[in-house]
Design goal:
The structure is a homodimer.
Chain A lengths: L15 E5 L4 H13 L5 E4 L8 H6 L4 H6 L1 E3 L2 H5 L4 E5 L10 E2 L1 H13 L4 E5 L8 H4 L4 E3 L12 H15 L19 H17 L6 H16 L5 H16 L10 H5 L6
Parallel strand pairs in A: 1-2, 1-6, 2-3, 4-6, 4-7, 5-7
């Protein structure tokens, strides 16, 4: 299928492709190639097993050098998501929970609309064998799943990235006379803001012995994060919520705060 | 992305995937896997370079055994097409000539319509390096091409087969936007639940002198209620949020709650 025209300008940009703990360099290279085919160039890699840079990734990328060279490595998924406003997790099957589940076409269109509106977006892809953990899916705003044969569902990460990259490209080819994508009414905050809210609440709850045990803690934190992620809170909304929790945190019912304490303090974060 | 459910019936049938002189067994295996993911099972191979059967194809097929075992080898492309009613050639670019050129979505829908009408259909894919020769494209009824980045067009045959197999599967879904799974709707709670949350938070803030003055209070309460109303929280989500605020409210950072206090108490309302 070779047909590259080196006189044409390279299409770049688009949603970030976020690979969570990929194991094989070959797969990272194939992901880069899939992205380049359909005009994506922002690759983020969380904690790759074999380190970075990776020679096998380079050779499998088949000259998608701009993607490989531009790849950014993060130690944690939270860091990889910090500046993104809206994130899909890709999963082979819907998980329990309250996140919306969409197909690739709808996801491609939604990402295009958000990017056109100036949001930064991303797509999460899990490890080769075990995919994404529940708490990682919990950091996403919604889930995208593929209409695979239920009796044979074994898309690898490069294939999953290929399908989403293709749907991203297709979403940009729509008839310009077609209804323009409406700007989402509320722009979700960069994930760092949301994670700041998580941290504030979870520290407060920890200090109060809310979680009882470490196993209950994990499940409760998952639920809590799901509830706080689902609305797609804006930065202003998050700041207001942080102010509420800060007020509950800092003052007893009976104490009158010094003038100015309660509202000003909520802007300070400890992360 | 593993998610195979072995209790589900395997989807088979559909258009024949015709590989013309494929070189690498690995690619044939990856083609089989791509087909199986999206419910295709008829693989035809014209004059494979390394003969047939091919161990590398089997191992790369990742248990898509039914596709590999059912593959039929032909000496010539003409023979491979003999019983087919309608055939698309896949190419990286449109060729000179008078054949219709369509995209993958339209091709998937056309193939579905013809198969439903009892026709036998096929899709031709060329060699790894040089694709299909012009005379081979000439044996097809129409051309399907992919909306790739013109400056980086290097879909391999397994990727091209994956995209067409995916479009075939999609064409069989009632609504092309739908995926195999339904979208969970969050049912917003009855307003009484939401108002209970308002009351709990506002009383807590009042007790802490958060509002300063009655005029500031009204504006702040309006904002707060707007933020909490916008997500359309479900009853379960509201209960979780009430639990958080109750915990912040009732316990000092230093105090350990009695067993059972924090979580159970949030169900009690004071309204």
């Amino acid at each position: 299928m070779a047909g590259t025209d080196r006189n044409r300008e390279l299409i770049t940009g688009g949603p970030a492709i976020v690979l969570v703990e990929p194991q094989l360099g070959e797969n990272i290279g194939m992901v880069a190639r899939a992205m380049a085919n359909f005009g994506l160039s922002n690759l983020r890699i969380v904690n790759p097993r074999d380190g970075w840079p990776n020679d096998k990734a380079v050779s499998a990328a088949s000259r998608a050098d701009h993607v490989i060279e531009g790849a950014v490595v993060f130690e944690t998924l939270e860091q990889a998501l910090e500046d993104l406003n809206f994130v899909y997790a890709t999963t082979a099957r819907p998980r329990d929970g309250h996140k919306p589940v969409v197909g690739p076409v709808e996801a491609g269109e939604a990402l295009r609309g958000r990017e056109n509106a100036g949001e930064k977006t991303g797509l999460l892809f899990g490890r080769e064998r075990i995919g994404l953990r529940n708490w990682e899916v919990g950091l996403a705003d919604a889930i995208v799943t593929f209409p695979v044969n239920p009796a044979y569902a074994s898309l690898n990460i490069a294939q999953a990235v290929l399908l989403m990259s293709y749907e991203w490209m297709k979403s940009g080819l729509a008839d310009p006379h077609q209804t323009a994508f409406a700007r989402p009414e509320v722009t979700p905050a960069p994930k760092a803001d949301l994670h700041g809210l998580f941290g504030q609440i979870e520290r407060g709850l920890d200090a109060r012995g809310y979680f009882r045990s470490e196993t209950k803690r994990m499940k409760t934190v998952d639920n809590l994060r799901a509830v706080l992620t689902r609305p797609g809170f804006s930065t202003a909304e998050i700041n207001l919520l942080r102010g509420l929790f800060a007020s509950f945190e800092k003052f007893d019912r009976t104490r009158q705060p010094d003038e100015g304490d309660a509202l000003r303090d909520h802007g300070e974060t400890e992360e």
